[in-house]
Design a protein that fits this description.
CATH topology of the largest domain: Aspartate Aminotransferase, domain 2
CATH architecture of the largest domain: 3-Layer(aba) Sandwich
Radius of gyration: 22 Å
Shape: globular
Strand content: 15-25%
Number of helices: 14
Low-confidence stretches: none
Number of strands: 15
Distance between the termini: 37 Å
Strand order of the largest sheet: 4-10-9-8-7-5-6
Largest sheet: 7 strands, mixed
Structural class: alpha/beta
Order of helices and strands: HEEEHHHEHEHHEHEHEEEHHHEEHEEEH
Mean pLDDT: 96
Helix content: 25-40%
CATH class of the largest domain: Alpha Beta
């Protein structure tokens, strides 16, 4: 047994991992990265199809970001942001984010340390906002089945993935869930041509059942990530926004995965001209070089919190490392790279190429569905494509493909029997070819 495997088995506790059922194989320990690839302690180099966890947008090995963090830490390693204090890096980044989200009318930025914290911030802001307006009964939040919004208790309550929730119930009260836009397996057994956006209109039916005066917000990912990489049909988000405006509930765009180029736009919301009340960023805000989250709000929400000391209108929330100067320095340089290298446009072009290549695999009988937007794509495996028959769960089809891809030096993370693709935006066309060619060999060999 290697030293690192012993450490892994004896002392390490990995997230979302059954530690009592570890493989006899050595753990995949990554020691370096470059572009769209990572290298293990065994010297093997892999294409990272998943971008770490949906976030390595500018790729690995960017010494320019490391240098920016180093220079910032030499100047100021950290200082709190509470009680009227701040640091220069956080202030400059806040201004830049507001400028970038000008089309969405964002006006203020509240920093945190990551996605779950940023979602938690948005949910707490929402509830207090309505209280400040004298509407204490307006507290419910509507989300969607299969949604992923994080793992802290509020964010988990908004999450619609049953396996993530069931071990921690009872969760925070006041959260409701509606069906997602899962067109391949429509929960209403409708065809996209004639469905009339039933899944979006369910929001209105749910609002009327709950009473709009009790509902504070609707929260959703522009493209659902961990719920299966679900791209909504045309008109879906426009209908959701119309309903939110009609019934005076806040619209929260969870852009933790979709922001900063992933979908082929700077923000996923822009594909549908959304103007949310709150936007939540993390992940590709720094491309993983430092932990950072940001919750952006419009002036309408922020102004409700303004008052005098002692009136209780301040937002009584915050985390120790909110606006950490080193993380903000990483974000600033990361955004420079995204803009200077045209990575948003790169994601659009490479995403089209990836989707075309993946659709070429639909001739293989075990490939049921292929869809995507930008460099977010899905390939759903089925036992029978004609009837959309899923594989038995015990066959672990998605995991089997992922394990076989390791033999081709490719890391891919399945979500059940859905293979998901969110590589660094700097991935090369030849690397996309290698990924799809390996899948063709593996899936073709299953027949």
């Amino acid at each position: 047994m290697s030293e690192l495997k012993r450490y892994y088995e004896d002392h390490y506790w990995a997230p979302f991992t059954q530690m009592g059922d570890l493989s006899e194989e050595e753990p995949l320990v990554v020691v370096s990265g470059d572009g769209a690839t990572v290298t293990s302690d065994r010297g093997k180099t892999y294409i990272d199809v998943h971008g770490g966890l949906w976030l390595a947008n500018v790729g690995y090995g960017r010494g320019r970001i490391a240098d920016a963090v180093y220079e910032q830490m030499k100047q100021l390693s950290w200082f709190p942001s509470f009680d009227g204090m701040a640091n220069e890096a956080a202030l400059r980044l806040a201004q830049r984010l507001v400028s970038m989200a000008d089309r969405e009318n964002m006006n203020r930025v509240f920093f945190s340390s990551g996605g779950s914290e940023a979602i938690e911030t948005a949910l707490k802001m929402t509830r207090q906002y309505w209280r400040l307006l004298g509407k204490q009964g307006k507290y419910k939040v509507i989300s969607r089945n299969r949604a992923y919004h994080g793992v802290s208790m509020g964010a988990l309550s908004a999450t619609g993935i049953a396996d993530n929730r069931k071990h921690f119930e009872p969760l925070v009260p006041g959260f409701r869930h509606i069906q997602p836009p899962y067109c391949y397996r429509c929960p209403y057994d409708l065809d996209i041509e004639s469905c009339g956006l039933t899944c979006a209109k369910e929001l209105e039916r749910t609002l009327l059942f709950e009473d709009p005066e009790t509902v504070a917000a609707f929260i959703g990912e522009p493209v659902m990530g961990a719920g299966g990489m679900l791209v909504p049909p045309d008109g879906y988000w426009q209908e959701i926004q119309r309903i939110c405006r009609k019934y005076d509930i806040l619209l929260i765009a969870d852009e933790v995965v979709t922001a900063f180029g992933r979908t082929g736009e700077m923000f996923g919301s822009r594909h549908w001209d959304l103007v949310p009340d709150i936007m939540v960023f993390a992940k590709a805000l720094t491309s993983g070089y430092q932990p950072l989250g940001a919750t952006l709000v419009n002036e309408k929400i922020f102004s409700a919190y303004l008052g005098k000391y002692g009136e209780g209108r301040e937002f009584s929330h915050g985390t120790t490392y909110a606006g950490h100067p080193a993380a903000c320095a990483a974000a600033w340089t990361n955004l420079d790279i995204i803009e200077e290298e045209g990575l948003v446009e790169e994601a659009r072009a490479k995403g089209d190429y990836l989707l075309e290549k993946l659709r070429g695999l639909m001739e293989i009988p075990v490939v049921g569905d292929v869809d995507g937007l930008g460099l977010m794509a899905r390939l759903e495996l089925v036992a029978d494509a004609e009837n959309k028959t899923p594989f038995p769960a015990e066959q672990r089809s998605g995991s089997r493909v992922s394990e076989e891809l390791l033999g081709y030096n490719i890391i891919l993370r399945p979500l059940g029997d859905t293979l998901t693709f969110s590589p660094p935006l700097v991935i090369e066309y030849g690397q996309i070819d290698r990924i799809v060619d390996a899948l063709a060999k593996i899936l073709g060999g299953w027949m």
